[in-house]
């Protein structure tokens, strides 16, 4: 791609972004002078008009913009239906690349002719995505495989698209400070180029395969946390080519086939959610791109989810994994102190002390998913809550309306959280697309609890003298010690320091080691 092509590509993106922005701002101003009965129809036409514009340009440009479209198409919980309906096309397949180009890449990467490599190679692709094209083939030993081949020249396109996306996000943050997605695009710019190395994806696939105990090899300390999913085995890889075990499955958007095979969509999405909870909280290594196109459903009962495409993954440090688990449990319990403590541990710093608003924002991350037909009501509810929080912020900081719009309450936003929140949003969008309701607090809680449980030293269980041997000064203290012994023997103590006060003068400490 030459400089002229890069310039043309950039101008198309910026022009469309500007046109759509002006279109929405114009209606925002016009609706102030309209009857309420006319507003809904105008907004619907506006969404449809701009969704068509977005889809057309994404198909034309491909590259990173297709991945963005795939992400947006899953957000049925917050985006207007016009965008969801049109952008869903990007989940299926893009126009295929010429098979001669594909074969040329395969032979160059593996150093052999197609006849030497394959007994049979199906020229019609199974799918064409933003980065690669997938073909079915048969090896000379009779094994059926899929061959994922990277598009020629796609690396240059992706890197250019990242620069353009960064510029647009910066511009939106300046024009509409409430929509500052800079931390997200910064993390994406760091992680997305890794998807261009298929050796990296192959190793990621093997790691998640082992972690989730695929093919009956679950080694989890807690058997209840084992998940029932399938992941294809890696056969061979190079930087631009990946050969995987072939798995026959149903696409999630193939509603007729799902119904014909009797697939329980509720159970399916719950198991996908459990698989991601395991990756995040137990393994600390997870796939960052769970859009519907990256899943299949096995045709054989019990119709297990098949997880695909591990190009974009995230590795969490042990402290970050524990902090995310603490944040989840604090949100589940409504514990403001624990939530702010988790924020501090993960490096998320706020510019002001608003624990209730912090709890509300965090609760949004882990809220129950809603079917797509409730998306409009969900959007209204979130907008009302945002307005309420802005009023609290305005009163707290004594800001005028213009100042509060430009005030960012977040002082530091760690990159690790970006991919984490992206996964939560994609999972919620997936459940909305599948028209099921998922209670994330119930499904994810056992996995989050296991993280903290696994990092507790079992003092009472391993050390009979875990209570300091100091003199007992009262019946109350004796009873308290007995209670602590019973709790310790039952393995119910995480850590405790008891401060007993007698007659408001005598202070005694009973220290429990953990």
UniProtKB/TrEMBL annotation:
It comes from the Eukaryota. One of its GO terms (cellular component) is Golgi apparatus. InterPro entries: ABC1_dom, Kinase-like_dom_sf, Mito_struct-func_regulator. Transmembrane segments: none annotated. CDD domains: ABC1_ADCK3-like (cd05121). Residues 89-338 form the ABC1 atypical kinase-like domain. Pfam families: ABC1. This is ABC1 atypical kinase-like domain-containing protein. It comes from Rhododendron griersonianum.
